[in-house]
Amino acid sequence: MIDVTEHREAFLAAAAGTAAVAGSYLVTGWSPSFVVRPVDQAIVNLTPGPIVTFMIETVGDAGHLIHIAMAFAAVIGLFGAVALAGLRIGARVDRSLVGAAAAGAASWLLAAGLTGISAQALGAALPPAAVVGIGGLPAPSNSPGPTSGDDPSAPEGPTGAVDAVRRRTLGAVAGTLAFVAAAVVGRRSLGGDDEPLADAPRSEGATARLREVEASALAVESDDLLGTVSPIGEFYNVDIAEFDPAVAATEWSLTFTGETGTERTVTFDELIDRPVEHRAVTLRCVGEDLNGRKLDNAVWTGTPIRPLLESVDPEGDCDCAMLRGEDGYYVQFPVDVLAEGFLAWGMNGKELPAGHGHPVRVLIPGHWGETNVKWLSEIELLNVEEDGYWEERGWEGTGEVKTVAKLWDEGVTEIDDGRIELAGHAYAGTRGIERVEVSTDGGDSWTDATLSGQLPDADVWRQWRHVFDPDGTHEVVVRAVDGEGNRQIREPSDPSPTGSSGWVRRTVG
Ligand SMILES: Nc1nc2c(c(=O)[nH]1)N[C@H]1C(S)=C(S)[C@@H](COP(=O)(O)O)O[C@H]1N2
Ligand SMILES: [Mo]
């Protein structure tokens, strides 16, 4: 059993640090003003590439939990250290209020240093001040025994005072835990973290334009089975940072820099005033396993990049460009590939959500997910090729996607008559899917699956379906053939560095 009285300062400091984080969360939610965010960002940026790749391949999405846990621990430690200093100052002058004020002021400075000077930083300052003020009160002098001046934390002090100190310390810790729970519940009821950004009022033209996004709402019929369009909340997410940048559309602009004939900056209003298109585009992450879930399709609203690009006269020697996002992400690829792309501000009939790059992201047909820069802010025309964020970390994910046919858990259903229905998605970028072949005997014999209709756009997945009569257990294997007649690569490989290959196999029955 840990002696609370003896470790009183440590308990109070940990409680104060935790209270600071909870208070900040209550005020800011998971926004850029939350004190954990910059520390998490620093951890992500400082982690060496091979470790990042190793984590992605071994623990996958749990890697996020690890760096976020480290960030929480570090921030609790920082605010805890500040609170400890406050406690000691309070004890020295024998006035816990002085200690509380010192801890509060220093916590505010720390929060402002991490996230910028704002009233929101008070969220991280008041709760630890309260913990220091209450937890640091000296032992009551009317309790039997001690006279003021005695060290209240001295374990062998008179029992009454020791009990009072113990109760107060435990009270401060319990109060902090209650505050953490209240902050989480309170924040949720203030509205989820996925709320659209409170942008400044828009011009009438812009409002009308944005209504066109809604009008798109599913020009595409979601046909049967697994669904053709992934709902926004289910569309996969890959981010280098735990927190989405909060970029208001009214503040956003895209600048073409570097080797251009004319530099150019485009605002959000200018962008959405350009010719509007709705395109179905499928994305797949190069880092996913062969039968992984980082493959999704949406209907996006936006405008083609080519005319904008031509208007700035790209002149660089490498005919290549570096694209940058507000979160510090960057990716480089050829200008002629970029010219095929699309700048999207709408997704499935809604304004582009924060997690998918609000207000504007890039969509590059047929290439791996990493080329589709979210929160786009700059397109720099280069003279010499440079590595992008993932290339620096050992990936080669800017090229065309590999061909794949998936068979997820929900793709296996027993239908009423005892037969088994197999269904999945197949994707080959702009090459398209010509056919999906299914084997129910481990690859000895193959049958063509039935394909869903092809969406009108080039860069979309297709659904396949195959029904068979089971006889015991079956080793099911699926493989796709792309529109150029190439069969999916048989030889299995890891995702790193160029994307996984092989054929999906699964025992059924
Ligand atoms: N700014 C920015 N853009 C980004 C990323 C990112 O971390 N930051 N991740 C990339 C990767 S690796 C993929 S697979 C896709 C995922 O897009 P989604 O999160 O909308 O599914 O976005 C790409 N664009
Ligand atoms: Mo990715």
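^ molybdenum atom complex. The chain has a mean pLDDT of 87. The longest strand covers residues 295-304.
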